[in-house]
Amino acid sequence: MMIFLSIAAGLIVLALAFVVPTLWQKNSKVGDIDPNRMNIAIYKERLAELEQDNLTPEQRTQAQQELDKTLAQDLDDTTKPSIQPPVRWASIVVAICLPALTIGWYWKLGTWHLLAPGQSSEAPQVAHQQKVPSDFDEMVKKLVVRLQEQPDDDKGWRMLARSYTFLKRYSDAVHAYNKLLAIVGEQEPQLLTDLASVLVLSNDGQFSGQPTILLKRVLELEPDHQEALWLSGLAAVQKEEYNAAIRHWQRLLPQIPSSELETREMLETHIAEARRQLAQNDIAAQVVEPAPAIMPIDKNDASSPSNVTQIEVHVSLAPALQKQVKSGDSLFIYARAITGSAMPLAIIKKSASELPITVVLDDSMAMIPSMKLSHFEEVMIFARISSSGAAMVQSGDLQGQINSVIFAQQDKVAVTINQVVP
Prior knowledge:
Layout: H1 2-19, H2 35-52, H3 57-77, H4 89-102, H5 136-149, H6 154-166, H7 170-184, H8 189-202, H9 210-221, H10 226-238, H11 242-252, H12 261-281, H13 283-286, E1 310-317, E2 330-337, E3 344-351, E4 357-362, E5 378-386, E6 398-406, E7 412-417, E8 419-420
Parallel strand pairs: 1-7
Antiparallel strand pairs: 1-4, 2-3, 2-5, 5-6, 6-8
Helix pairs in contact: 1-2, 1-3, 1-4, 1-6, 2-3, 4-10, 5-6, 6-7, 7-8, 8-9, 9-10, 10-11, 11-12
């Protein structure tokens, strides 16, 4: 429920938060541009869309309450001096939902979707189906004219940048944000974060370059800035720097209110998935070649450590596939739990030219201490040839497997590579 509601309510808050001019003071003069009219116009449009969404009555009521609360606050803010409001958790819901719905970078993560496990990239495109209020464009044009007359009006540039973002005119939004930065400087964390987000949106979802620099600056100014921590994690994932992503998101996690249980669980899922990606991506780098002298432990030998589990694996290649193996192809031999995580419990990398080969898998080859052979009574054994050298399974790889090995019953197995991964 929370995931779908976050998409609906979060995007509603986004439409208001990006366009609502909470920074207008009483004495701001912007001609006949009425910030309350903009607030109410967006509110009515969001309310109409809310009625069309496939929400349960409870979800719709909760989303409308958030919408009403935001509108009331923003209308009230137009009569108060400008202050920088504290970051609300709703902004993080926006940061989670908008990039995932607007940008296509997360397809690179395979089955890892930024909204929720199992949700396809064909997520509801609510943000793309918005209708712009009929007089909104006209109000933006008047604001542009006003800024030509008053180029040092920082509040006007801020409002224009957010309005362009709402209209998905991201390049124009970048220009407006840069104008604003030239006036107010680079000491406002949220402003730098907003610019980083729009730069990403204007550059096909790429974080490289200025967005990364801006996010780094934000975290120097405010190490616990919630949106910057989330976006910095996404930037790290894009560069396959999963340790950095985990670090950013683990710093963010304690800031989520305990009442946002499902949101916490969602973020924890992303952290766990980053760990899984880290393990799979770094298999080749982390595999330790065993010394040639390693031999299976004699389980009848009293001197053998009783807490060590190992399995001797003999790997051969089916004659029908021999012509498909090229010089330089890599051979991965590993054990995996039958259910649960796909992280290898023990793994070794060899050259396919060494086939047939016999190796020993044991606890010393575990990726992490909590996932090793001795923690399981039954495992699966795989042998796979990769022409790319990539540790992750790819179409065209050659593979063989044994679906069940029970340590209490056997300490030696033979695997024949006889399949082509589709």
